[in-house]
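Dear colleague,

As promised, here are the two records you asked about, laid out in our usual form so they can be pasted straight into your sheet.

NAME FIELD: protein one
SEQUENCE, THEN STRUCTURE:
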Amino acid sequence: LLLISFSLKNRSLSSYFIIYLISCIAMQLAQQHNLHVFISDIPHLFSILYRSLQATNGLLFILLCHKLFPIKTLTPKLYWVINFSGLVYIAIIFQAVFFPSPYLHFILSFNTHLLILALIIVTIILSLQKFPHSRAFLCAFTIFALLKCLDFLNDIHLIKPMFFTPFNYGISNCLIILIFTSIL
C-alpha cells in the first residue's frame, strides 16, 4: 500500500485511493470467506459484516469518484443520483446492523448497478469533452458493470455459474485499481 501511495502522481488522491484499496481488500477477504475463521462463533455476524463492507466499499468508491471527476459541475443531475446512491449505501449499513433482511443483497446490487450506470454516463460525457484518461475509466466501469450483471444474473439463477463468476468482484476491482494506479 505504501508503494502504491508513493508511486501515485497525484498526491492529493493517494489517501482516498489507499482507503478505497483497503476496503477492496477487506471486501475480497469477506467474499472468499476468509473472515469466517475470526467470527465462526457468531454465524449471523458474517452477513452483517459482509453487507456493511459492501456498502462501505460503495461509499468509498463514490468519494473517490467525486475527487477524480468534476461531477457536480459537469452533470448536476447525475451528481444527485450518485449522492442518492451514497445515501442508499448508508441506509444499507444501518439496516444490515439493526434490521437484517434477506432482500438486502438485491437492494445493494441494484444500487451498485445504478451507481455504475451513472458513472458510465459521466465518463461518456467526460470522453466527449476530452477529459484526461476518461476513456480508460469508461472501459473500467463498463467491464465492472458487465461483471456485476453476470454476478446478479447468477444470483437470481438466470445463468449458470461460470468458471470466473465467484471472482467477478475481485476481477472487476483489480481492473479498476490497475487503471487508477496507472493514471493517478
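NAME FIELD: protein two
SEQUENCE, THEN STRUCTURE:
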Amino acid sequence: ANATLSGILQISKEEMSGLTDESKRLGAETAKTAGEVVELQTAYARLGFSQSEIIDLTEATINGSIALNAELGETATLTGAMVNTFDDLGTTDAPRILDVMSLATAKSALNFEKLQKGLPIVAGAANAAGISFTRTTALLGKLSDSGIDVSTSATSLRNIFIESAAQGLNYSEIIQKIKDSQDKLTASNDEFGKPF
C-alpha cells in the first residue's frame, strides 16, 4: 500500500516517512488500522493533495468516517472534493467539513450516501454563487427532510444558483420573492422557468 502511495505522489518511500509515521501512529491510536490509514492517504493523493496536506486531512477524516459510519476512502474522496471545490476551504478545514457533514446526518434525513451523491452535484454552482459549504449542506438537509430525492434536490439547487447568477441576483433574494408570493408555483415558474 505504501508503494502505491509513493508511486501516486511520485516520491520515494524514504521521502514519505511523514505519511508512514502518521499511518503507524493513527493505526495505534484510533479504531482504524495502519493499512486503512494508508488507504485514505492514497485517496487524498489521487485527488492531488501533497504530503503535508494529506497529514492535515488524515486524523479528522478518520474521526469523521467513524461519525458518518462510512468507509475511510469514500470519506476522504468526498472531503477532498469539497476542499477542492469550495474556494474558502483548505485542508486545515477538514475537521469543520466533517463536523458539518456529521451534524447534517444527525439532524436531518441526510446520510453519508446522500451527501456523497448530492454534494458533488451542487457544490461547484454553490461555490460560484458564493454559497458556503455549510449553507449548501443545510439546504440539502432541509430538502431531504421534505422527502425530496437528493439527486433531484441537488440538481434543482444547482439550477437555482446558476439561474440566480444569470439574473445577477443573489439566490436568497429570489427565494424570498417566491416565499412572499401568494402563488408560489407561478412565482417560481416566473423566476426560473419551471417550479422548484
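A couple of things worth noting about protein two: DSSP finds eleven helices and no strands in the chain. The mean pLDDT is 91.

Best,
R.
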